[in-house]
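Summary for the lay section of the report: proteins are chains of building blocks that fold into shapes. Here we show the chain for PRC-barrel domain-containing protein and then a coded description of the shape we predicted for it.
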Amino acid sequence: SNNIVFAIVSFGGFFGMGEKYHPIPWSSLDYDEHAGA
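The coded shape description reads as follows.
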């Protein structure tokens, strides 16, 4: 059904080595367009 279900977030690592990836449910994320980018 072409819906985004998870975002993949990486933690740790150094220059792309040793990173760990964790799926975060898309519904738990919050976006504030006024917070700045």
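Put simply, here is one thing we learned. Strands lie at 6-11, 20-25.
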